[in-house]
Structures are given as C-alpha cells and as structure tokens.
C-alpha cells in the first residue's frame, strides 16, 4: 500500500490500520484452519480482525475469523460484523461458557487488564492468569499467539538498546507481575499438552486515537508540559503490530517461542515532542529530569523474521501531529507510559 501523506478521518485511518502485508497474504495461503481472536473488544481488536479478513481476501482463500469478547461496547460488535468477522459474546472467566466455544485451530489471545490494577489487584490477577488457565485447557490442540507486554522486563538504562528475548524477566509492580503470570500459565500448559505457543511481548502500539505519540502530542497541543521522568520509549504502528501478531501463528512452538514486538528505535521523548511541536507550530515545555532508566525492548529478532515495520517513526509523528491539529477523535485511554513505579 502507498501510505498517505496525512490521515484526515477515521475511515481512512481504519483502512491504513487494516492493510495486510504481502508476507501475511502469502502466509494465509499456507495456514490451515480458521482464526479466533479472544479479547477482540479492546483498542487493537478491530485492527487485528480487519488485517486478518483483508489478508484472507487478498490470498483468495476461504477462512473464518471469529471474534470473542464480552462486548462491553455493543458498537464494537456491530463494526466487527460489518467487516465480516463473526462474533461470539463470552466472559472468558466463565469455564462453562468457554467449554462451549468451538475449538478453532488458530487462536490470538488479546485479553488483558491493566488500568485500575492499583487498588483492585485481585481482578487483574484473575483476568491475566485465570483466564489463560481456562483458555489453555480448552484449546490444547490449537496454536496460540498470546499478547503479552514488554513490562515483563525490568527498567533498563536508556542507552542499553532494550531487553532481548533471552534476557531475564523482572517485572515491576503487580500488573507486570500478573502479565508474567499469564506467560507462565500458558507456558505450563504448552509444555504439558505440547500446545504450540508464541509469546508476543508488545511495547506500545500507535493508533492515532491513542498511544504514546498521541499522549505526548496532546500535551503539546494543549500547551501542557511533557514529563521527562521516563525519557525514552518504544513504539510500533498498530497495523504493523497486527500483521506481526498473525505472522506469529507460523512461529508457535512448544516450549513457547518469544518475540519482542516493537519498532527499531529507543525513542527519546524530547525527539518525538520536538518534531511534533515543530509541525504544530507550538513551543514545547518539559517537566522533570531526563530519566536514565526506561522500559525498553530490543526488536532485532522480530525484525529478522517479519522485516522492519512498514510505517516509519517520522511518518507516525507527522500523522499524529496532524490528527491532533485537525481535532481527530481520541479514545481517552492514556497509556501512562510515563509511569516508572509499576503502579497502574
Ligand atoms: N495497546 C498497546 O499498546 C499494548 C501494549 C502492550 C501490551 N498490550 C496488550 O495487548 C492486548 C491487546 O491490547 P488492547 O490495547 O486491545 O487491550 P484492551 O483495550 O485492554 O482490550 C482487551 C479486551 O479484552 C476483553 N476482555 C477483558 N476481559 C475479558 C473477559 N473476562 N472475557 C472476554 N473478554 C475480555 C475486553 O473487551 P470486552 O470488555 O468487550 O470483553 C477488552 O477490551 C492486551 O492484553 C494488552 O495488555 C497492548
């Protein structure tokens, strides 16, 4: 796809986010079985569903995409159905309900809970570890790509280039600990039943309606100071992240294969803010001191297997700055990427 200079409305945004790569289209020709996306109701679900459907169409094969969530927001379900995604409403904490789900060959697991953990830690542990237990016991004969997070790594020096998949995990705070719990539970059942698994450790997807660039850009646009305590971050265009999630299906192994999914840069907050401020014609102000530790992952392994992301950092900065200038809709879901005490 030739990328547009600017993105001016949500229809265009969803089209760009839902574009499959030639590599994914090729994979769909080889992949056996249908695809089920568990936890499709969130910020990334519709993009992932659209990429899957469009890759299947482009490949000229016949394959169902089924999305499962509670559908707390009924509009999401309507939108998914319009795309051609079948939907099943299910609370994945409910063992009986999960037992009735069809056993589909390819599972993308996106369920998670982050915000609101501080003060309600029990629910976060239940969603992030009990749901994996129930799901892993039901889909023993499937291949499963499990969405995880770079938060399972410790904070590292901003000059380090980020943690690699072979580095030790050391999660900070209960949210991150429960995410490692999710990985361990799936990993246990993968070893027990031989279920092929990929652990997909994502660091910050970029949509124009939410994401780290949206959070920084919005501060600049509203002339509020940009905090520097977490001075570097990783980011990847959500469309690229979704393509890579589906490509992971062919890399599932037992024991699990692990991938860091993000862009190639450790991005300085100052750099991102200065570029967006320039585009917006605003003067950026900063608060706090440049932190020397941050949550950073190294994406060399995913780049080797899936190629570099198709949308560059420069392009994401330009699109985000213009989106904010146009008054584009936001989801009102801040990433809290500037949290450095592990409490969400
Ligand atoms: N977006 C990012 O930049 C990012 C970065 C790192 C990691 N991740 C991880 O990647 C995954 C997908 O990201 P996301 O941003 O789309 O997450 P999200 O917005 O939190 O969406 C997850 C969805 O899972 C569904 N869900 C939660 N509990 C459920 C239950 N008991 N039964 C059925 N469905 C349930 C919810 O939809 P309903 O309310 O409709 O059920 C929820 O919207 C998450 O696990 C997230 O932690 C995302």
UniProtKB/TrEMBL annotation:
Q: What name appears for this protein in its UniProt entry? A: Nucleoside-diphosphate-sugar epimerase
**Cited InterPro entries:** NAD(P)-bd_dom_sf
Taxonomic lineage of the native organism:
Bacteria, Bacillati, Bacillota, Hydrogenispora
Gene3D superfamilies xrefs:
NAD(P)-binding Rossmann-like Domain
Origin species: Hydrogenispora ethanolica
Question: SUPFAM superfamilies in the record, alphabetically?
Answer: NAD(P)-binding Rossmann-fold domains
């Amino acid at each position: 796809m030739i990328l547009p200079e600017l993105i001016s409305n949500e229809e265009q945004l969803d089209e760009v986010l839902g574009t499959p790569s030639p590599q994914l289209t090729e994979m769909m020709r080889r992949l056996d079985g249908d695809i089920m996306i568990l936890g499709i109701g969130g910020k990334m679900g519709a993009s992932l569903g659209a990429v899957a459907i469009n890759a299947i169409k482009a490949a000229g094969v016949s394959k169902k995409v089924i999305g499962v969530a509670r559908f707390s927001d009924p509009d999401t379900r309507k939108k998914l159905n319009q795309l051609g995604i079948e939907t099943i409403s299910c609370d994945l904490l409910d063992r009986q309900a999960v037992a009735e789900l069809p056993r589909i060959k390819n599972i993308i697991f996106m369920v998670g809970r982050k915000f609101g953990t501080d003060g309600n830690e029990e629910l976060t542990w239940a969603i992030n570890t009990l749901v994996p237990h129930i799901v892993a016991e039901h889909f023993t004969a499937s291949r499963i790509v499990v969405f995880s997070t770079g938060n399972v790594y410790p904070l590292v020096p901003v000059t380090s280039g980020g943690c690699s998949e072979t580095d030790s995990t050391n999660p900070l705070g209960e949210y991150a600990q429960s995410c490692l719990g999710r990985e361990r539970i799936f990993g246990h059942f993968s070893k027990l039943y031989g279920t092929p698994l990929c652990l997909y450790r994502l660091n910050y997807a970029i949509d124009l309606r939410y994401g780290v660039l949206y959070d920084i850009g919005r501060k600049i646009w509203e002339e509020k100071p940009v905090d520097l305590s977490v001075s570097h971050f990783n980011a990847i265009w959500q469309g690229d992240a979704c393509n890579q999630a589906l490509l992971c299906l062919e890399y599932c192994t037992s024991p699990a294969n692990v991938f860091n999914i993000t862009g190639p840069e450790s991005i300085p907050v100052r750099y991102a803010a200065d570029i967006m401020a320039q585009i917006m014609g605003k003067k950026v102000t900063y608060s706090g001191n440049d932190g020397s530790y941050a949550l950073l992952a190294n994406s060399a392994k995913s780049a080797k297997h899936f190629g570099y992301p198709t949308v560059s950092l420069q392009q994401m900065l330009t699109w985000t700055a213009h989106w904010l200038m146009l008054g584009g809709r936001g989801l009102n879901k801040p990433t809290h990427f500037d949290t450095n005490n592990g409490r969400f």
